[in-house]
Inverse folding.
């Protein structure tokens, strides 16, 4: 099956610092990747759609200048949380889209737990 | 405004019995529905899906039923096994593509030996 990895799996940082999370598709190329955020007892909320070689598309209410997304290759997308604050503490999950148009499947990474002190 | 709702946050079932997880949706434009299974500290894993042109899809112990008129779908697991204990997310999309999934909040299933 398709494998998607995330690094790091967890991170603790001080308020005001920036944190970069990597999402890799290990055995397939992904033109499109997605970034989700999940707060406790809540559903996965799509933050943005990352397209290789072009700008990411952000969902309403997600600050693009705070959550920087770079999809520089077909196997790697990065999410940088800039000037992180405690309210950014959450579980961040990426997914990669694999398959032909209309028959795609999202494969999810294991997630990254971010705690901002 | 939640477009996909899983009203039961948790469900406990005895091993060997049937587990029924429910999901309701409000957007009549949704035409493709998926169930994902998620273990702690892991990302969701695709389980089974159903297109709106069908009312049932079966894969081994897992069956998904869709009632379009009621905007309701359910996942049946039979027989339930302890390894099925996880959080199950219902998701919906438009156009048959998984490109834009709308997730429910999930139901935590506990299967007791």
């Amino acid at each position: 099956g398709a494998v998607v990895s995330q690094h790091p799996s967890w991170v603790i940082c001080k308020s005001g610092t920036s944190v970069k999370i990597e999402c890799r598709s290990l055995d397939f190329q992904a033109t499109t990747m997605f970034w989700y955020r999940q707060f406790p007892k809540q559903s996965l909320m799509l933050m943005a759609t990352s397209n290789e070689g072009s700008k990411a598309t952000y969902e309403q209410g997600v600050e693009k200048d705070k959550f920087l997304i770079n999809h520089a290759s077909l196997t790697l997308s990065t999410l940088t949380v800039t000037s992180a604050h405690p309210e950014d503490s959450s579980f961040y999950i990426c997914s990669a889209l694999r398959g032909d148009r209309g028959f795609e499947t999202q494969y999810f990474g294991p997630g990254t737990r971010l705690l901002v002190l | 405004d939640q477009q996909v709702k899983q009203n039961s946050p948790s469900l406990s079932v005895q091993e060997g019995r049937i587990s029924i997880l429910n999901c309701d949706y409000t957007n009549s434009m949704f035409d493709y529905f998926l169930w994902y299974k998620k273990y702690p500290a892991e990302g969701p894993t695709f389980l089974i899906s159903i297109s709106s042109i069908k009312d049932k899809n079966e894969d081994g112990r897992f069956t998904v039923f869709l009632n379009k008129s009621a905007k309701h779908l359910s996942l049946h697991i039979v027989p339930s096994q302890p390894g099925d204990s996880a959080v199950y997310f219902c998701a919906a999309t438009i156009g048959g593509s998984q490109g834009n999934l709308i997730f429910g909040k999930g139901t935590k299933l506990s299967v007791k030996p």
